[in-house]
Amino acid sequence: MSAKTDTPRVERFNAGGFRIYRLRLQAFPDFYAHAHLVLGADTPTLIDVGSGWADSNDDLLAGFAELQAGHGEKVSLADVGRIIITHGHLDHFGGLAFVREHTRAPIGVHALDRRVLTNFEERVVLAAKSLRTFLIHAGLDEKRLGEMMQMYTFAKGLYHSVPVDFTLREDETVAEGFRFIHVPGHCPGQVCVQLADVLFTADHVLSRITPHQSPESITRNVGLGHYFDSLRKVRDLPGVNLCLGGHQLPIRNLAKRVDEIRRSHERRLSKVLQLCAEPTTVKDVSRSLFGAVNGYNVLLALQETGAHIEYLYQRGELAVANLEEVENAQQPAVLYHRV
Q1: Which CATH architecture has domain 10-119+161-265?
Q2: pLDDT tens, residue by residue, 131-156
């Protein structure tokens, strides 16, 4: 995901009789996310809270200060009466412990991401085990495997579990018109939130990139198949004139952007098939798709590649070339080839 941003610190949008303020937060060094404050409903509602890192928390407070000084809104973080978490990724929910120091507002998230918030420590341990298996099958050697696992578990101590007060249900309307649409794929419990003619798309639809994909072999209810289904679900939503994502710029034409994202993945799927003309590993396909990447981007590239290979394998377009080795060896690298 692009680390750069050209969005203002605070930006106002209107939806029916509601006032929406987009607050830009530096979730991680040079990596930005948005929280959205909705005013004019039964209670001030905060959609996502940033990562909980110091800069993110400082930006959240600075955003509320600018609401007061620059926009004439007499509202502080303490006045927030409802918190909606769009999905269980750290840059969107990690600030909950900090926010709860200022307000005891009830927290809502979809049931499939509930345990990420309420039992984060368990989530990290179990997901790490699944990831390790994936990376071994992807063809990583022990040294590279250790590096990737260390990167993945770096956030283990950054967030402490908090209770969830209510769950976000498909097509349920809360208060004065917050409607939730379950869109698994990028994350199991991700929701889009519709309010009047505005759709908060979280990480489901973004203006400039195709949101990161990971194989369902690591986490249930993610993967490219689920993501494509969820794209179809929102493409033609009636009455949506503006989309506000968890990152990057607003989107004015949802159907056009959904089609662009779908085509991007279809091009990548076609490229993967070409690369699998001869038996090859996820690791080698990833290197061909993404070139020389460094740091955490290596892990993201492997997961993205794995999601596309998994999609093609599930649909019978790829097969395992070294089946005897997979049957008899202890966790071998898996070689895929085009059928």
Answers
A1: 4-Layer Sandwich (3.60)
A2: 999 999 999 999 999 999 998 887 66
